[in-house]
Structure formats: C-alpha cells, structure tokens
Amino acid sequence: MARGTHVWFNGQVVLEANARISLFTHALHYGVGAFEGIRAYKQKKGGGAVFRLTDHLERLFESCKILDVKIPFTIDELIAGTRAVCQANGFEECYIRPICYVGDGPLGVNPGTTPPIDVAILNWEWGNYLGDKGINEGTRLKISSFIRPHVNSSMTKGKITGQYVNSVLAKREAINSGYDEALLLDAEGYLTEGTGENLFMVKDGIVKTTGLNSVLNGITRRTVMEYFKHKGVIVQETRFTRDELWCADEIFLTGTAAEITPVKEIDNRLIGKASHLGKPGPITQETQKAYQDIVHGTLPDYAKNWLTSLELK
Fold this sequence. Notes:
This protein is of the alpha+beta class.
C-alpha cells in the first residue's frame, strides 16, 4: 500500500509529513467529521480518471449537513484538489480519501456555533479491500453480534467518522473468529450491510438488496442498480433474514473499496446452487465484469457522466 507523499490540506497541496493536526482537534475526541472513499482507475484509452467523483463529493456535503458542519470549499474546489493531489503523487490508479472534520477549538462536547473546519484529501495505492482471493473466489462472512445502530441513534445517511467504531468492532470480531468480514443485522434482526459494503442476494433469478431505511446509500450500490435497470433486471429493495440469506443462490458485496466481491460462505454455510456451491455465481460474475468495464472506461454509455479525468485544467 504505497501512500502518497503529498496531500491536499485546507486548499493547498503540501508534503504529507508537514500536514499535522493538533491534539486539541475536536474530531479526534468526539468523532465529528465525515469522509468519502473514492477510486481512480487507469483508462483503456490512457491516463487516469476518478469514478463518480461528483456523486461522492455531493454525499460528503450531505454527511456534513447532517452534522451541521459547513465545508469551507465548493465541490469544484474539491474536484480541483483531487486532481492536484493525484498529479502531485503521480497516481493514475488509487484510492482517494477526502475528509472534513471539526478542528482545533473548544474541547467540550459542543464545538460552538462557528467551529474551525479542516478539509483534507489524501490518496494511496490500494488493491481490493477483501483481497484478491476474495474478489476471485469469494469471501467468508460472519453474522456479527454487533447490530447496525437504530436510525434514531445513528444517522445512517451520513458517512460519519465516529459512527465507524461499530464497524471496527464488528470487523475485529469477524477476523478474530477466522472470517474475512462481518454482516450486521438491524435492531429487529433483518440484514443491513457489511462493515463497509452494501449487500445483494440472488434467489431464483431475482436480485434483492437491503432497503435504504437503515443503510448507507452506497455509490457502488447505486451503480449496480443503474446497470441492472439498463439491462432490464428488476432489483427488489426489501428486508430479509439470515436464514433467507443462507439459502441464497448468489450473494455479493458492493463498495468503492470492495468493488464487487462475491460471497462464498456465511456462518460456515457454503452459498449457492450445486452447480456453483461456494463459488461466484453467473450474475455475480457478469456484474463484476461490467463494473470493471465501466470504471476503466470501456462502456462509453457510462463513461461520459461518471469518469472525471485526472488531467489538470
């Protein structure tokens, strides 16, 4: 994982070694901040491009609106900053992390009416979140003992830094139990999502995904659903239980970091029909290929609106 030597910090590209924050930073103590995970990909025609950059940044602004944090930059300025930091680090293909948080100020729970706000964009070279084996052969999941917080206790539409402690605990539990990733239930026992991914299942040719009532509106999730719509495939947004999931024909996870990752096993139960038991199913494989074609610019219908060139303007 090669990290960039430069970052964009409060409007300027600086050496990462010089971009330091105070121990009195409010977000360090209380988790009041928001972030995005974005990817840039090498394009078939040459150069690099960021996938759905504007959509990600719009969601960052929504997350900060939920927190009542005002970002002191425009989306266009953050787009320019993203290009600049990728250029400075020489990355055409990388993972990009914009983050906005309450900075050095009063250290009570209340940061005040006009707290200082810091914004940074950093990037690094990163493979698939759940590993090459996971992306090619399928990943192993565990239903976590930690539940997805209720919508009245956790703002599910925000990608908020402090809220990810729950995901950290669930992920650690899964890893320590010999699995690759965790799946979280809601307070009523229905499936929600992974620690950093949305969830899809296929049964008898019908594609289902958990509804947005309790999960983050993932950009990759939206991409997959728009692709299915373009293909004439109806996706049901609905609740389902763990035993329904165990009996699925196919399961896959979606996320910027995880991309399209097939699931081979949940709670020691192999997933799939006899023809592909414990292996990626046909719909999952087709979706994986289509997604890679989209992000690398080989499907022009999607490239026009979803790919932002890394060339500085």
